[in-house]
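Hi everyone, sorry if this is the wrong subforum. Our group has a chain we'd like a structural model of before ordering constructs, and none of us has done structure prediction before. Sequence below.
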Amino acid sequence: MSDAEPVDDLGTPVPIARPVGRVVSLVPSLTEAIALSCPGMLVAATDWCTHPRELAVERVRGTKNPHVRRIAELAPDLVICNQEENRRIDVDRLRDAGITVWVTRIRTVDEAFESMGRLFTAALGVERPDWLSEAESAWAAPPPEPARNAVIPIWRDPWMVVGRDTFTGDLAHRLGLRLVHADRPDRYPKVSTTELLSGVDLAVLPDEPYVFTETDGPEAFPDIPVALVSGRDLTWYGPSLVSARARLSDQLTRA
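Answer:
Right subforum, don't worry. Here is the predicted structure as tokens:
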């Protein structure tokens, strides 16, 4: 094993053949990042990779059930995965099939910037994109004060909310929110209806993974301000980070 081999976010050495020309992304946020920064490099992505909307590549099922055999047939130079988005068993199956896999780990906004920088330079062997520096500048300012006690549901029946050690939780902190369930042991805890509302001054309802709308979600928070926001702005890391802070801040202020 060469000392020059780069290591992914989990510390695993990844023997990457240069130049990287064929990439499969199993992470929607990173699919968008690669598609915009390295046109023509992607050969396949998941069904959930919805941005950029004009992306025309083969689909290899979902983030939790990738079509390993088909991915192998595509002979990619590299497959991009994420510790949270993808299952370890699928990463192992890909590697057992002789496929080179780069795994990212992103639980904070700073980790997102660092991880994506290394993805482009160390894994893909290209220059750090300009939009990444623009995104860092957009999120450099301190959060507004005082913090607002908030809840961010990601599912209902049962209710599940954003908790500790999550990218979305850190992003929410930078927007001036204090997530009331961040002290629970689970990263995405299930809560009762009573727990959902307790101590909450603001409910932030994204349109993914559960599609909260004006008629599905706000009624569960009587007498509590509600902000309906883009799930992409709130949960995706990638080019959307350049403008997400301004949009989210405006929506939270108006709630």
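For your construct planning: The first strand starts at residue 23 and ends at 25. The mean pLDDT is 96.
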